[in-house]
Design a protein that fits this description.
Elements (H helix, E strand, L loop, with lengths): L4 H23 E7 L13 E3 L26 H9 L4 E4 L23 E2 L6 E2 L5 H11 L2 E5 L7 H12 L5 H8 L10 E4 L15 H18 L4 E5 L5 H11 L5 E8 L8 H20 L23 E9 L16 H16 L4 E7 L8 E4 L2 E4 L3 H10 L3 E2 L1 E5 L3 E2 L2 E5 L1 E8 L4 E8 L5 E7 L6 E8 L16 E8 L3 E4 L3 E7 L1
Parallel strand pairs: 1-20, 2-3, 2-11, 3-6, 6-7, 7-8, 8-9, 9-10, 10-11
Antiparallel strand pairs: 1-15, 4-5, 12-13, 14-18, 16-17, 18-19, 19-24, 20-23, 21-22, 21-24
The structure holds alpha-L-arabinofuranose.
Length: 512
Amino acid sequence: MNIPFKKIVLLWAVIAVVSFQSTFAQEVTKITISKPEKAVEVSPNIYGQFIEYLRNSITGGIFQEGSSLSDENGFRTDVLEKLKALTTTVLRYPGGTVTKIYHWEDGIGPREERPARRNLIWGGVEDNHFGTDEYIKYCREIGAEPYIVVNMGTGTAEEAANWVEYCNGTGNTYYANLRRKYGTEEPYNVKFWSLGNEEAAREDAGRLYEPEKYAEESWYFAKLMKLTDPTIKLFVVADPFKFDWNDPVLASLSPIVDYVSLHWYVGNSPDDPYAIYKNITRFDTSLTELGDYLQQFPAKVENFSKWYRFPPREGAIKISVDEWGIWDNTCGGQYNLDCDYTWKSALATASFLNVFHRQAENVTMANWAQSANILGAILANDRGSVEQTVYYPLQYFRQYVGNQLLEVDVENMPFIAEDQTVEALDISATYNNENDEVCVFVVNRSYEEQTINMDFADTKTSAATLVEMTAPNENSRNAIGQESVVSIIEKSVKKNGAINLAPLSINIVVVQ
Ligand code: AHR
């Protein structure tokens, strides 16, 4: 075929324009931020933490008597400062699986008189020198609300109610007086109480893995605990995927339960480098489904018998992701609980936090598991401590998150080049009516730079700040005694101009 030269040039020009347009279309992602029709509050309690009597999570982690790094309480000051810097809102305690054998009275009174006990769940011996009073003091130091999980395994309902009295009692009664005797006049006012932990797990030392049995026992525990303090909020064990557990549990307990408690850990898989993100997306979807499911329990409980002598639940049942984090067999130690988190773990952590923002209507509490050493955001040993990579999204998202959820519309979402099912960008946005600030949280999970163009309705300034977190590569990690691999920089950007997001980066765009 003989094509004249002019036609070839024209054809080339057309191809060039089309391919330029499609390249441009592929490269620029348009993000439109707007106010949702219905206002949704973002609860600060999604930035909680969790500690457990599990090897060096508490003793040797946040608490180490006799160490030059500890204060007069035995609190490791270096770890304390790092937890304070996270502005942790809730601190869940004392477990975890260990709650099935933990007796709180072992942990009160003069430290030298407290009994040392075998930790039947995780091994080792607990000297119980960090007990309820130390825990509450710790919560006060870091500014977190206490949240206690009671023992429904070897413990009794009466023991749980006595714990409520020890913490919250105001009268002239035995356990309230015991608290006074041990130095604290004012009640601790612990609001959040969980009825057990992962009770559905048959392999654990518990005995309540039949949902009907759990519901029956929970009623008994709840009655004695609520009769002790009717203002407490109760959490029951649920599962994002097992409705044959959730159905009977909630059919029975819905009049008195304030939160359903979920646990969700994600990890890397040797077969699929993007499994960690897929697992987070799966969880996101399940939260929407569980949120819809919970709608069947009306916010106002009708026909609650006055003979219970305490009030029913007030308000809708909410979801608490009581334990979440990253746990896989790339971690070392027994049960793979010793994790040196990589930068990829930080990208996954940031994606998880975006899920909690987006799910603000359903999820009103979430606790990263755990604070120190065991699956820890912080590593501590006798010589010092360090923030792991995952610490930084926890810190910065908390610092910038607003109190109202914003809607995010994305045009031209890029996918991770190697896996066209995983979105390269993970996004959420919030507004803070206290400082009039909009923040857009964007995780770039791809190995390529991505360009975004934002459209903000109702914002005043043309300038914006980009807080950008990066690390040398996805396997970079922090270690005690070494400089952090994480680089955090602030850049001025144009609110409505193109913003380049570095490969494998966590970004917060801040607009007034
Ligand atoms: O955080 C470690 C363990 O993970 C907790 O004890 C348990 O609740 C969960 O399975």
